[in-house]
Amino acid sequence: MDEIRHEAMRGGCLCGAVRFETTLTATESHACHCEICRRWVGSALVCVTVPPDDIRFEGAENIRSYRSSEWAERAWCDRCGTTLYYHLLVGPQNYEVALGTFDAPNGVPMTLEIFIDRKPDGYAFAGDHPRWTKAETEAAFASAGEGT
Ligand SMILES: [Zn+2]
Ligand SMILES: [Zn+2]
C-alpha cells in the first residue's frame, strides 16, 4: 500500500503535457461498461470519483473534451490522446478520473460495476462487488439525480 496516495494522488497523460493532483481520501474505483464508455476507452472505463474542488490540473490548455450527453463531457490530452476523465456537468459536477492515469494506481479496489449487461462477454473483472445491469444503473442514477 502506497501511503502517499491518501495525501496527494498525482497523475497525468502519456506524453506528460497534462498533469493533475488531488487530495483524495476515498480511494475506490468503479467500472462502466456502457456503450459510450466502451467506444471511448476501447473497453471499460475504470475510474475514481473526484469532487470538482479537489482536482488541480497543469497543462490544462492541452485538454480537449467531447460533450457526450446533455449532462457530461469526456476529456483527453490533445497531444497524445490519453483518456483523462468523464466530467459530470450537473449535480455534484464530479470528475470520474481514469484510474490508469494515476502515477500509483495500486491499492484502489473496484467497488462497483455498472451496465454489466452491456459488457462484452470476452472479459470480466474479478472481485466480489455489486454489478448493476443497465436498468439497475439507470434507476440508481435517476434517484440520485445524475446521468451516466
Ligand atoms: Zn498527453
Ligand atoms: Zn459509461
TrEMBL record:
Keywords: Lyase, Metal-binding, Zinc. Pfam families: GFA. GO terms for molecular function: carbon-sulfur lyase activity; metal ion binding. Residues 9-124 form the CENP-V/GFA domain. Belongs to the Gfa family. The keyword Metal-binding applies. This is CENP-V/GFA domain-containing protein. InterPro entries: CENP-V/GFA, Mss4-like_sf. It comes from the Bacteria. Coiled coil: none annotated.
